[in-house]
């Protein structure tokens, strides 16, 4: 009799323990969210995190900006729940993810143009995609070759690990190699800083990084702005992504976070940062 009671008690404790462990696991998963990846998408993720944690003080969201490639690696290695990417995931990244049991699902959170930026004092107001390519290849080296002053062009690019670089490479470079003289910087903010402090520089950055300290050039006669990017008219534009492992459980904090851009508040946050929302409230 006593043995039976002991077994029953032990079974009950095991069930209770498993239940508590399960609850603890769900709690830990849903209240601590790690976001890593693109420096372009990073400001959106940070603004979303600040907004969301304001609504849910029990949720802790950390956002790192290590670049799109590293964001993909973090998702594949299971060290983040959400990978910010300013480009779509590559085939080899998908293959590596599936091999580890990760199924990447893309969420388009905003649209972005890649303005070509120069110093505000530069009188050049527009270029063609071909002229931009020729500058980065090294065929055009002086501003006087495109109607500007007699000054050598200082060419600035994002580092090759960034999604911004890969978008520029796909949409502008047409598989041509950049000149050895091109300077590489580690973030959109650094690209803007180099251009704003160098009167003869040219660079590119996400639309949200363009302010009064730099001048965005018309490309093929089209000004980069919300209207031309959302309509697909501006030739150097792209979607911005958050990737998760599978589609998030409905009602979870991760689901709410990666769909925040679909709400009116999410749209306002994206507009305030300078990117193009996918909704129109």
Low-confidence stretches: 1-28
Question: Structural class of the secondary elements?
Answer: alpha/beta
Q: How would you sum up the global shape?
A: globular
| Gap between N and C termini | 69 Å
Largest sheet: 5 strands, mixed
Helix content: 25-40%
Walk across the major sheet and give the strand order.
Answer: 2-1-3-12-4
- Please work out how many helical segments DSSP would assign: 10
> How many runs of DSSP E, i.e. beta strands?
12
Q: What is the percentage of strand-forming residues?
A: 15-25%
Rounded mean pLDDT is: 90
Question: What's the SSE pattern?
Answer: HEHEHEHEEEHEHEHEEEHEHH
Q: What is the radius of gyration?
A: 23 Å
Protein name: Phosphate-binding protein
Domain PBP: 29-249
Keywords: Phosphate transport, Signal, Transport
Family: Belongs to the PstS family.
Description of the molecule:
The protein has 281 residues and is of the alpha/beta class. The chain contains ten helices and twelve strands. The strands form three sheets. A five-stranded mixed beta sheet has the order 2-1-3-12-4. A five-stranded mixed beta sheet has the order 8-7-9-5-10, with helices on both faces. α2 packs across α10 (264-273) and α3 (68-76) packs parallel to α4 (91-99). It is globular. Involved in the system for phosphate transport across the cytoplasmic membrane.
Write the layout of secondary structure elements.
Blueprint: H1 2-31, E1 32-37, H2 42-55, E2 60-64, H3 68-76, E3 82-85, H4 91-99, E4 104-113, E5 116-118, E6 126-127, H5 129-137, E7 154-158, H6 163-173, E8 183-185, H7 188-196, E9 201-204, E10 215-216, E11 218-219, H8 226-230, E12 237-245, H9 253-258, H10 264-273
Parallel strand pairs: 1-2, 1-3, 6-11, 7-8, 7-9
Antiparallel strand pairs: 3-12, 4-12, 5-9, 5-10
